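Students often ask why inverse folding is considered easier than folding. One informal answer: many sequences map to the same fold, so there is more than one right answer. In these notes we will look at a single instance of the problem. The structure comes first.
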């Protein structure tokens, strides 16, 4: 599919799409951007991420290089979610490191995961998403020493008294336990017959 890179882009675009007309084919030129933009949709995992629309402070440098535009910088944002052990809410600041080369022309060597300059703009949304998601823990916790929930009753282990435990009966012995219970409840009249 051929893309006309000189055509006008649609008027209503995300702030994460940055015009780079001044940098295309101008190796050595650079500029910086410092903005606060709303977080795009689906930045994170189902357990921890950035709420869509929340402010993200972006501080990046755009540098024209021979192949296209090199983007480096950071994005400061707030992660929200829940602890994978106790299910308490988590809210934490996070700084994502952003670095990506946007190519002026597609490279024939690598067809996948290429970021291209399209309509003289670059789209930083996937760059932010990749930087945040790859840095997130697989199982986030509210604190490293979080004890979690009791596997039997679901109560937070930090809220129960010391020695909290539940009697567990191996299901293979359940039939024997029923016999013992019947033996204890049987009356002397029953035993004589």
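Output (designed amino acids):
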């Amino acid at each position: 599919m051929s893309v006309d890179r000189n055509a006008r882009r649609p008027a209503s675009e995300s702030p994460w799409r940055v015009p780079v007309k001044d940098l295309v084919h101008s190796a050595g030129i650079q500029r910086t951007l410092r903005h606060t933009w709303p977080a795009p949709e689906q930045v994170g995992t189902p357990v921890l991420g950035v709420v869509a629309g929340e402010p993200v402070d972006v501080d990046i440098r755009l540098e024209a290089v021979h192949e296209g535009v090199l983007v480096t910088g950071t994005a400061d944002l707030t992660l929200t979610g829940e602890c994978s052990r106790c299910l308490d809410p988590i809210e934490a600041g996070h700084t994502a490191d952003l670095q990506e080369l946007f190519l002026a022309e597609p490279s024939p060597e690598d067809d996948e995961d290429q970021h291209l300059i399209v309509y003289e703009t670059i789209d930083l949304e996937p760059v932010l998403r990749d930087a945040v998601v790859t840095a997130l823990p697989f199982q986030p916790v509210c604190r490293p020493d979080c004890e979690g929930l009791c596997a039997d009753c679901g109560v937070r282990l930090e809220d129960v008294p010391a020695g909290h435990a539940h009697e567990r009966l191996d299901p293979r012995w359940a039939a024997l336990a029923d016999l013992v219970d019947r033996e204890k409840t049987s009356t002397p009249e029953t035993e004589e017959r």
